[in-house]
Protein backbone atom coordinates (compact mmCIF):
# COMPACT_ATOMS: atom_id res chain seq x y z
CA UNK A 1 0.00 0.00 0.00
CA UNK A 2 2.80 2.38 0.95
CA UNK A 3 4.65 1.55 -2.23
CA UNK A 4 1.57 2.41 -4.35
CA UNK A 5 1.14 5.71 -2.52
CA UNK A 6 4.81 6.56 -3.00
CA UNK A 7 4.62 5.66 -6.71
CA UNK A 8 1.49 7.81 -7.17
CA UNK A 9 3.16 10.75 -5.41
CA UNK A 10 6.30 10.41 -7.55
CA UNK A 11 4.21 10.27 -10.73
CA UNK A 12 2.23 13.36 -9.73
CA UNK A 13 5.44 15.27 -8.96
CA UNK A 14 6.94 14.22 -12.28
CA UNK A 15 3.84 15.28 -14.23
CA UNK A 16 3.70 18.63 -12.43
CA UNK A 17 7.17 19.41 -13.75
CA UNK A 18 5.94 18.88 -17.33
CA UNK A 19 2.94 21.17 -17.02
CA UNK A 20 2.69 24.19 -19.30
CA UNK A 21 2.83 27.61 -17.67
CA UNK A 22 -0.51 29.19 -16.85
CA UNK A 23 -1.97 31.64 -19.38
CA UNK A 24 -1.50 35.35 -18.72
CA UNK A 25 -4.02 37.05 -16.47
CA UNK A 26 -6.90 38.71 -18.34
CA UNK A 27 -6.28 42.41 -18.81
CA UNK A 28 -2.52 42.12 -18.29
CA UNK A 29 -0.07 43.39 -20.91
CA UNK A 30 0.96 39.82 -21.72
CA UNK A 31 -2.64 38.91 -22.55
CA UNK A 32 -2.71 41.63 -25.23
CA UNK A 33 0.23 40.20 -27.21
CA UNK A 34 -0.06 37.44 -29.80
CA UNK A 35 3.37 36.20 -30.92
CA UNK A 36 3.26 34.67 -34.37
CA UNK A 37 6.32 32.59 -34.96
CA UNK A 38 9.47 33.36 -33.02
CA UNK A 39 10.12 36.62 -31.20
CA UNK A 40 13.64 36.43 -29.85
CA UNK A 41 15.59 39.25 -28.21
CA UNK A 42 12.67 41.69 -28.33
CA UNK A 43 11.00 42.39 -24.99
CA UNK A 44 7.52 43.85 -24.94
CA UNK A 45 7.27 45.99 -21.84
CA UNK A 46 4.57 48.08 -20.19
CA UNK A 47 1.62 49.36 -22.17
CA UNK A 48 -0.19 52.63 -21.62
CA UNK A 49 -3.83 52.85 -22.66
CA UNK A 50 -5.90 56.03 -22.70
CA UNK A 51 -8.93 57.48 -24.44
CA UNK A 52 -8.36 60.75 -26.28
CA UNK A 53 -11.17 62.57 -28.10
CA UNK A 54 -13.25 59.38 -27.89
CA UNK A 55 -10.61 57.13 -29.50
CA UNK A 56 -8.53 54.51 -27.71
CA UNK A 57 -4.79 55.19 -27.79
CA UNK A 58 -2.06 52.71 -26.92
CA UNK A 59 1.67 53.09 -26.32
CA UNK A 60 3.76 49.90 -26.15
CA UNK A 61 7.35 49.83 -24.83
CA UNK A 62 9.76 47.69 -26.86
CA UNK A 63 13.39 46.79 -26.16
CA UNK A 64 15.92 45.00 -28.34
CA UNK A 65 17.93 42.97 -25.83
CA UNK A 66 20.61 41.92 -28.32
CA UNK A 67 23.49 43.89 -29.78
CA UNK A 68 22.42 43.21 -33.35
CA UNK A 69 19.70 45.03 -35.26
CA UNK A 70 16.26 43.37 -35.33
CA UNK A 71 13.30 43.80 -37.64
CA UNK A 72 9.85 43.30 -36.20
CA UNK A 73 6.45 43.11 -37.90
CA UNK A 74 3.31 44.14 -36.02
CA UNK A 75 -0.33 45.06 -36.37
CA UNK A 76 -3.11 46.00 -33.98
CA UNK A 77 -6.54 44.37 -33.83
CA UNK A 78 -9.16 46.69 -32.34
CA UNK A 79 -11.89 44.97 -30.35
CA UNK A 80 -15.28 45.96 -28.98
CA UNK A 81 -17.00 45.11 -25.68
CA UNK A 82 -17.83 41.63 -26.96
CA UNK A 83 -14.19 40.84 -27.84
CA UNK A 84 -14.80 40.83 -31.58
CA UNK A 85 -13.07 43.16 -34.09
CA UNK A 86 -14.76 46.53 -34.64
CA UNK A 87 -12.47 47.69 -37.46
CA UNK A 88 -11.10 46.10 -40.59
CA UNK A 89 -7.88 44.14 -40.24
CA UNK A 90 -4.74 46.31 -40.35
CA UNK A 91 -1.88 45.56 -42.69
CA UNK A 92 1.45 44.44 -41.23
CA UNK A 93 3.85 47.25 -40.36
CA UNK A 94 7.64 47.02 -40.09
CA UNK A 95 9.76 48.34 -37.22
CA UNK A 96 13.56 48.24 -37.11
CA UNK A 97 15.18 48.17 -33.70
CA UNK A 98 18.90 48.82 -33.48
CA UNK A 99 21.06 46.87 -31.06
CA UNK A 100 20.07 47.55 -27.41
CA UNK A 101 17.51 50.15 -28.53
CA UNK A 102 14.32 50.89 -26.61
CA UNK A 103 11.35 52.62 -28.19
CA UNK A 104 7.66 53.31 -27.73
CA UNK A 105 5.20 52.13 -30.35
CA UNK A 106 2.12 54.41 -30.52
CA UNK A 107 -1.26 53.45 -32.00
CA UNK A 108 -4.72 55.01 -32.24
CA UNK A 109 -7.91 53.02 -32.82
CA UNK A 110 -9.52 53.87 -36.17
CA UNK A 111 -13.06 53.81 -34.72
CA UNK A 112 -14.44 55.12 -31.41
CA UNK A 113 -16.22 51.79 -30.71
CA UNK A 114 -12.88 50.12 -29.86
CA UNK A 115 -12.70 49.32 -26.14
CA UNK A 116 -9.88 46.76 -26.22
CA UNK A 117 -7.01 45.72 -28.45
CA UNK A 118 -4.60 42.95 -29.32
CA UNK A 119 -1.15 43.41 -30.84
CA UNK A 120 0.14 40.71 -33.16
CA UNK A 121 3.94 40.56 -33.53
CA UNK A 122 6.59 38.54 -35.32
CA UNK A 123 10.30 39.05 -35.78
CA UNK A 124 12.58 38.31 -38.67
UniProtKB/TrEMBL annotation:
Source superkingdom: Bacteria
Keywords: Signal
Signal found in the keyword field: yes
Source taxonomy: Bacteria, Pseudomonadati, Pseudomonadota, Gammaproteobacteria, Pseudomonadales
Signal peptide range in chain numbering: 1-18
A family per Pfam: DUF1425
Alphabetized Gene3D superfamilies for the sequence: 2.60.40.3230
Name of this chain's protein: Uncharacterized protein YcfL
Membrane is among the record's keywords: no
